């Protein structure tokens, strides 16, 4: 009986330990699966980030953007009107100064003639000056009309102050202030899209141009395109997406296009353009690209 009991107890112990091992293995397997799943989720979340891609950079003529071309044409006409008005005012001012110089010349000649006439004695008046030996007031003898000359000079101001001429702009001109800087002859178009797995927000970037080849004219640029620095022969242009929140979705149909009007200093050869685009969610890009300075319409 005791032997049977010992064998039964040993068998029971073996079964219990076996079940405990199976349970431990099962829970270990579940823990391993959970860890793998968490790692997979972490990897998937890590991969769900935006990936910005530069889809195109081109130097295009103004006619490729009718609105920009119209704006530049209106500004050119305004500058011509302003220059014409200034030329007329300069001509009128030169004529006025010429008349003033001629008048002053005539007055100087008149004063010289009066001075020559009054430079001698009128001996006929010495008879009425007094008795011999009496002091004579010689100022009564000279016929110099100095008092009249002094009065005329005092009545005429030496300097004439005029208000600066006001520049009048046509009422149809779209800008609030006159622009008198360089006019662009082309523009740089940069397109960016998102090939990642998540949306990018607050997309920003910058371009660095070689000033010996291209001069940016941000006066005609769209909102979000600004010239922020000029360092010697280099210009830095800041780009900010204007969509809601600067958002760029991971879609083939969604992209951001920036346009910077420029004035070409050379019309042949190539120029190097540095760029960078970033977002707080990551996926930024940067690089250098070469652009041909001769436009397609000029080839």
Automatic annotation (TrEMBL):
<feature type="compositionally biased region" description="Basic and acidic residues">
    <location>
        <begin position="89"/>
        <end position="130"/>
    </location>
</feature>
<protein>
    <recommendedName>
        <fullName>CARDB domain-containing protein</fullName>
    </recommendedName>
</protein>
<feature type="region of interest" description="Disordered">
    <location>
        <begin position="89"/>
        <end position="132"/>
    </location>
</feature>
């Amino acid at each position: 009986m005791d032997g049977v009991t010992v064998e039964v107890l040993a068998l029971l112990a073996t079964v219990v330990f076996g079940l405990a091992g199976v349970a431990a293995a099962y829970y270990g397997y579940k823990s391993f699966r959970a860890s793998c799943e968490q790692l997979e989720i972490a990897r998937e979340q890590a991969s769900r980030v935006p990936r910005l891609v530069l889809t195109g950079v081109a130097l295009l003529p103004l006619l490729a953007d009718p609105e920009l071309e119209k704006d530049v044409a209106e500004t050119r006409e305004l500058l011509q009107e302003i220059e014409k008005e200034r030329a007329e005012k300069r001509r009128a001012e030169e004529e006025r100064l010429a008349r003033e110089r001629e008048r002053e010349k005539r007055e100087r000649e008149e004063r010289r003639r009066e001075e020559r006439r009054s430079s001698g004695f009128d001996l006929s008046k010495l008879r009425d000056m007094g008795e011999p030996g009496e002091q004579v007031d010689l100022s009564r003898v000279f016929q110099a009309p100095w008092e009249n000359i002094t009065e005329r000079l005092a009545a005429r101001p030496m300097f004439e102050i005029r208000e600066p001429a006001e520049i009048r702009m046509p009422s149809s001109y779209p800008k609030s202030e006159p622009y008198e800087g360089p006019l662009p002859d082309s523009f740089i178009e940069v397109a960016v899209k998102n090939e990642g797995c998540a949306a990018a927000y607050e997309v920003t970037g910058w371009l660095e141009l070689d000033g010996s080849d291209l001069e940016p004219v941000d006066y005609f640029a769209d909102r979000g395109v600004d010239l922020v620095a000029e360092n010697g022969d280099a210009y830095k242009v800041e780009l900010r997406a204007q969509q809601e929140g600067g958002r760029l979705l991971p879609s083939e149909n969604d992209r951001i296009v920036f346009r910077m009007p420029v004035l070409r200093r050379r019309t042949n050869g190539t120029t190097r353009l540095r760029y960078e685009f970033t977002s707080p969610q990551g996926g930024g890009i940067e690089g250098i690209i070469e652009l041909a300075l001769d436009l397609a319409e000029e080839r």
